[in-house]
Amino acid sequence: MGAALHLAHAHQAPVKKRRPKRTGNGGGDGYDALVTRVYQDPRHTPESRELILLLAWLSARDPNRYDADGNLISWGKRASAILGEYGPGPRRGSRFADLLYADRPRYETERDGWEQHTCAAPMIRRAGLCGQHAVGNDYTVDPVTGWRTAAWYCRRHETWGNALRAQRHENPGPEPIPNAGGLVTSYLLAEGQEEAWARLYKRAADWKRDRHWEPPKGYSIRADDWPTPGREPADPAPARLRLAAVDGELIR
After folding, report:
1. Distant-in-sequence, close-in-space partners of 112: CB < 8 Å, separation ≥ 6
2. pLDDT in tens, 168-206
3. pLDDT tens digits, residue range 121-135?
4. Staple partner for 132: which of 96, 149, 154, 202, CB 3.0–4.6 Å?
């Protein structure tokens, strides 16, 4: 990510020499299957798709992935060079940092509930909710998933809203299951590299001036590992390339 942010080679082992060339690209390295899976995966955002396809190409197809001496070039340096920087000033924006940050594993609340602005207090003399214009809000927490649901209240039902807040403070609920990001690692993380990838995400967050992001404590950083109510588990053996975070070598 430019001179100021060295994501990919922060924990880089000595680079390895070029391996003998293979004739043809028949897809035996898993690259073609990965590309197919990426385009068929409905979870992807434009950012995650762009980054995964670039990193996979850098590892499996990039003709310039070796230097003049046959040493493997850091995939992070190549990605930063290809994606480039933008903006004025000495601290230019990094497109590589943007894409990594967009894929940081996290929980995001659904925005629909926060935009309704109608009172959700239950009525006593009739069925249903109040529905009047709201003046304040809080949220409830699912005791299983930890996911938050917006709860708006009108001036008449402020006591109800305050009771919700007090209940939440007394019982804040579990850590929310992540529901955003974690797609790059679902495709490219190799066994034993979770901490290295978490550091990459953290460095990207720091570069974006997000000092609050931390990797999930009770869950992995791979979206494939997150339980999602109402959704079938991910394919236990998907087409995958593993991009080493320690030395830039593709591990098949």
Report:
1. none
2. 999 999 999 999 999 999 999 888 889 999 999 999 999
3. 999 889 899 999 999
4. 154
Question: 176 near 107, Cβ under 8 Å?
Answer: yes
Q: First-to-last CA distance in the chain? A: 26
C-beta separation of 135 from 154 below 8 A: yes
The token pair that represents 14 in the structure block = 């000595």
CA gyration radius, the chain? 23
Q: Do residues 118 and 98 make contact, with C-beta atoms less than 8 angstroms apart? A: no
pTM of the predicted model, to two decimals?
Answer: 0.78
Sign of the torsion angle spanned by Cα atoms 44, 46, 48, 50: positive
Task: For residue 195, give the nearest of 52, 11, 69 by alpha carbon.
Answer: 11
CB contact set of 8 (below 8 Å; sequence gap of 6+): 74, 75, 76, 77, 79, 200, 245, 248
Domain ranges of the chain: 30-107+178-225, 114-170
SS3 of residue 39 by DSSP: helix
3-class secondary structure, 113 = helix
* 131 contacts 118 by C-beta, under 8 angstroms: yes
Cα–Cα distance measured from residue 189 to residue 225, given in angstroms and rounded to the nearest whole number: 12
- Identify which of 173, 183, 197 has the alpha carbon closest to the alpha carbon of residue 226: 183
Of 21, 23, 51, nearest to 204 by C-alpha is: 51
